[in-house]
Write a structure and sequence with these properties.
The complex is a heterodimer. Chain A is α/β, with parallel strands linked by helices. Chain A has 16 helices and 13 strands. In chain B, about 40% of the residues lie in helices and about 20% in strands. Chain B folds into two domains: about 10-295, no CATH class; about 305-500, no CATH class. In chain B, the strands form four sheets. Chain B has a nine-stranded mixed beta sheet. In chain B, strands 5-4-15 form a three-stranded antiparallel beta sheet, with no helix packed on it. In chain B, strands 3-16 form a two-stranded antiparallel sheet. Classes of the chains: A alpha/beta, B alpha+beta.
């Protein structure tokens, strides 16, 4: 295989080419770096590239030629996934810990921080043969929906450079859409995987809370966030899920011990959704905040799934009006505590501490957070203050429980909830950042899955004037296989209408 | 303000932190729980250093130990045990929050509403209520080069960070400093009997005291390093507050530190405002739902507790309850007692020996405080030499009329020094006691010759003298008169230090 098109290969196709000897991993990674050097000046998807990637590629090549046995970089994980992503270039969002590769969270506070350990999910992907190619841009600590709040500059949308790629996992989505990576990791606190996936026309899966270990995901809002999976095809997503899912009782008390291996076998995914029942939500459909092209795309998606034999009905969930307030209150409260550790004493950004009182030292160092992070730390500190806990945090938790119960009630009667991923088209750079409330409002469809802890998948559905529009499905806890089936059905039905990368 | 009478009621409450020293690992990671004596910042990992992205993994056994202690203190065990974050900035706190427990919104701590009965208060008894018992992580430690006032920076050692602590908070039910001491000793005995904490280790049990008189503001005293000092600090604070009150001076609600060198409390730096810890439930540790049967299973696994042991000693060995209590109050004495009865069946005689003679000896010679700042080396080394067989033989020799009590006490001294069995010592004494100076002279000289280093140490350290005495006793096959030998050794040391260095 020659030419640029090989960068557009899906991961499962690439693994076949590598295994049958048509592609050398070292060549592939080297030319991928070449491509990144050329393209990323305009897109700015990466913050740091992995300088050991070529070494790792050589290890894979050697194993392929039978010189050594492939056991994964950390001596194998023994779960039978040891080569299913062999040689696939993996982009990792820069808030996920990678041993020996700088991990900044797109923050000046961590501009020099090099972790001593791999996140569990990264370790599992590496053991399956994936090669970390670099760390991707994002909103600082995941706080944003456009990747504009980065200490390392904004990420441009590969489909329209003057527009945002979405966020906060904007770098990962842009890298995939521009074929600067084969698969990617993001994180999703209130839609941070699905939003950029939708804006960049790729798949973004926010798994069930706890299905993927959070160990190594740098905390923003612990009770809401998950590591999310991003890919250009449903089968790639299935492969990634198979490798990464499952309990991590070694490190993470909150991970679920779910046996998903059987139902996630990519071979077994059927594109058949006949008879499935989907719910749309009146409060979302009728919302004034939805752009016309998005509404049209949604209506088209409804008729598409109906043509495939699914039944779509509209339901009402009145408690959804509390979703954004509940989400932001909880997220900011948790953030204010999580981000307290960045004080310049043990790692990251620091200054000479001699002769300075600690409180003074702390304020100097912590002045290096970006403005949006400061805003959320202050708001979070406020809602947790004594006397306000009951009025804000506890109330937000009660609203969250209500929303979750209402969502689960709907999911008892329906297989999935269907809605747009984002209510708007990708905005122009600078268009939304000046008004925080307008910015927060665009998370209205995505936060629901995080509040309820259910899985959600953004599927690239259509284009409007060259701008991607996604559709989103949410399912019951641990029903990722169902989401993959829906996506596979739409992918098969619309393969000639949707492009998932731009070369 | 209104003038208060200076004899208004004193109220004392305690906040006690006990490290679960019997655990192998820290509360949330696999680092060793035994941080003592290690190079700074070597007993650490990404989790206890709070590196970005790490998550706590709760030590199951720590929860079990805490539940056992809560049961021993008659606490109710919470049905849902939940951890909270206590947020504040301090360099010894790697995450700038402490994972602890908090009861303002629910009964989240391991135990609540417990009690401990002090039943040997000169014949009367009294119940101290326990408000709560909670599990939390220990912070690291700060160190300064030179004094804290002149140092230009602080050094931080995170070896201790993340070690499991149980915090016990009492109601303000104490009226007297002596009750505080009694309570702490009783608690120490419970910890020893449960085998979850060794109170003799430095910093394993730490105590803060809250003291108020009448309607005056409450004063918190921190930084108290030993049980003896808790009693002293509380007594000092009562005197200080009474004296202020009697002169009509306002008693400020404040935090004070115990200065153990000067034996006074001093005002800690004033806080500019009331600290707001912004407690909220720790999202990374799911609540533990505690089932009744789990608690009962733990209760069944618990070792014999001090109260039960006292009762058993009274019943099985016919000891007086006072004697039994004194023994059980320090687990090693009770263990020594029980083991000694295997060699000699007059239990009461053995018990008396331990309670009056051995304990008296320890208190006089071993500067013995079970929760002292320094390590407890002196009494430990004594227990290494005085075995159950020694005690049994001594009691037997006295009971059989072979020796009198005074001689027996001398023999004990000899035992402590030499580790020889009392019967052998008595034989030596019977044959002929080396009680003349000139007869001992050659042995003493030989020991000084061979043990040059110990002899030089003895110039500055009394403990080295005991070591030399032990050698003299051994070379004389126990026939030397220990008193005489000791005075001769002291003389030699004195000569040496006078005679130029």
């Amino acid at each position: 295989m020659v030419g640029t098109s090989r960068f557009a290969l899906n991961a499962y196709e690439l693994v076949n080419e590598i295994k049958n000897g048509s592609i050398s991993v070292e060549d592939y990674i080297a030319s991928m770096f070449e491509r990144i050097r050329k393209m990323d000046e305009r897109i700015n998807a990466y913050i740091t590239l992995n300088e050991h990637a070529l070494e790792e590629a050589r290890i894979v090549d050697k194993a392929l030629k039978g010189y050594t046995e492939w056991k994964g970089y950390s001596n194998g994980n023994g779960n039978g996934n040891s080569s299913i992503l062999l040689g696939v270039p993996l982009a990792v969002k820069d808030n996920i810990s990678t041993q020996g590769i700088r991990t900044t969270c797109a923050s000046k506070m961590l501009e020099d921080y090099v972790p001593v350990y791999d996140a569990t999910v990264v370790k599992r992907l590496k053991d399956a043969g994936a090669i970390v190619i670099g760390k991707t841009n994002m909103d600082e600590f995941g706080m944003g929906s456009t990747t504009e709040f980065s200490a390392f500059g904004v990420t441009h949308n590969p489909w329209a450079y003057e527009r945002v790629a979405g966020g906060s996992s904007g770098g990962s989505a842009a890298a995939l859409a521009s074929c600067m990576a084969g698969i990617a990791l993001g994180s999703d606190t209130g839609g941070s995987v699905r939003c950029p996936a939708s804006f960049c026309s790729i798949y973004g899966l926010k798994p069930t809370y706890g299905l993927l270990s959070r160990y190594g995901l740098i905390s923003y809002a612990n009770s809401l966030e998950c590591i999310g999976l991003m890919a250009r095809s449903v089968l790639d997503l299935a492969l990634m899920l198979k490798v990464t899912a499952g309990s991590d009782m070694q490190n993470d008390h909150t991970s679920i011990d779910a046996d998903t291996s059987l139902s996630l076998d990519p071979e077994s995914i059927s594109p058949d959704i006949k008879g499935m029942r989907f719910a749309t939500i009146r409060e979302v459909v009728e919302s004034e905040g939805i752009d016309e092209p998005v509404r049209d795309s949604m209506l088209d998606a409804i008729s598409s799934v109906e043509q495939l034999g699914a039944i779509v009905e509209e339901v009402s969930i009145p408690s959804l009006r509390y979703a954004l307030a509940s989400y932001y209150t909880i997220a900011m409260a948790e953030a204010s505590s999580n981000l307290a550790r960045y004080d310049g004493i043990r790692y990251g950004y620091t200054e000479e501490p001699d002769g300075v009182a600690w409180n003074e030292f702390y304020s100097t160092i912590r002045g290096n957070f970006g403005s949006e992070v400061k805003r959320r730390i202050m708001l979070g500190t406020y809602v947790l203050s004594s006397g306000y806990y009951g009025r804000y945090y506890m109330k937000a938790q009660k609203a969250r429980a209500l929303i979750r119960d209402d969502m689960l009630k709907v999911l008892k009667d329906y297989d999935a909830i269907m809605m747009p991923t984002m209510p708007i088209l990708p905005p122009r750079i600078g268009e939304r950042v000046s008004d925080p409330l307008r910015l927060y409002n665009i998370d209205v469809c995505t936060v629901l899955a995080n509040l309820a802890g259910v899985p959600a998948l953004s599927i690239p559905y259509s284009m409007y004037n060259g701008l991607p529009i996604g559709v989103q499905f949410m399912a019951r806890h641990l029903d990722e296989p169902l989401l993959l089936r829906i996506a596979y059905a739409l992918e098969s039905a619309r393969c000639d209408k949707v492009r998932r990368c731009i070369i | 303000m209104t003038k208060m009478s200076s004899d208004a009621r004193v109220r004392i409450g305690l906040e006690i932190h006990c490290q679960l020293t019997a655990l192998r690992s820290k509360l949330f990671c696999r680092c060793s729980a035994d941080y003592r004596g290690k190079e700074p910042n070597t007993n650490v990992c990404p989790v206890c250093l709070g590196m970005p992205g790490t998550l706590p993994l709760l030590n199951r056994r720590a929860v079990e130990y805490a539940i056992m202690l809560a049961l021993a203190l008659n606490c109710k065990i919470s049905k849902r045990i939940t951890f909270y974050r206590k947020n504040y900035f301090y360099p010894d706190l790697p995450k700038n929050f402490q994972i602890t427990q908090y009861n303002a919104y629910e009964h989240a701590s391991v135990g609540v509403d417990g009690s401990l009965v002090l039943d040997d208060l000169n014949g009367s008894s009294k119940t101290i209520r326990i408000r709560r018992l909670q599990l939390e992580e220990d912070p690291g430690r700060l160190a300064y080069e030179g004094s804290i006032d002149t140092a230009n920076y602080a050094l931080v050692d995170y070896n201790r960070a993340g070690v499991a602590l149980v915090e016990i908070v009492t109601e303000p039910d104490f009226d007297e400093p002596s009750e505080v001491r009694l309570f702490l000793n009783r608690l120490a005995s419970i910890l020893e009997h449960l085998g979850i904490c060794n109170p003799a280790l430095e910093g394993a049990v730490r105590c803060d005291a809250n003291i108020s008189i009448g309607e005056h503001a409450r004063v918190e005293v921190k930084n108290i390093n030993s049980f003896k000092d808790v009693e002293r600090a509380v007594a000092f604070e009562i005197t200080r507050q009474r004296s202020l009150a009697s002169r009509g001076i306002e008693i400020r609600g404040e935090t004070r530190h115990w200065d153990d060198a000067r034996r006074i409390t001093v005002q800690a730096r004033m806080k500019e405002e009331e600290e707001d810890y912004r407690y909220f439930p720790e999202p990374d540790i799911p609540s533990i739902v505690v089932k009744e049967e789990d608690v009962e299973a733990l209760r069944a696994r618990m070792p014999e507790l001090p109260y039960a042991r006292v009762e058993r000693f009274v019943k099985v060995y016919s000891l007086s309850s006072d004697t039994a209590r004194i023994l059980v109050n320090e687990k090693h004495l009770a263990d020594l007692f029980e083991a000694s009865t295997k060699y000699y069946d007059n239990a009461r005689s053995i018990a008396n020996w331990i309670v009056t003679d051995l304990k008296g000896y320890l208190e006089r010679y071993a500067s013995y405080d079970r929760n002292s700042k320094g390590d407890d080396g002196s009494s430990n080394s004594i227990f290494a030499k005085v075995t159950p067989r020694h005690i049994a033989e001594l009691a037997m020799l006295v009971d059989s009329g072979k020796i009198n009590r005074v001689t027996a006490r001398q023999i004990l001294q000899n035992v402590v020094a030499s580790g020889m069995l009392p019967s052998a010592i008595v034989q030596g004494m019977d044959a002929d006691m080396l009680s003349k100076k000139d007869e001992l002279e050659s042995i003493v000289n030989r020991v000084i010759e061979e043990e040059r280093k110990a002899f030089m140490d003895a110039l500055s350290n009394e403990k080295a003298l005991n070591y030399l005495l032990g050698k003299v006793m051994r070379y004389s096959n126990g026939r030397a008169d220990p008193k005489l030998a000791l005075s001769m050794l002291k003389e030699k040391v004195a000569d040496k230090s006078k005679g130029g260095k």
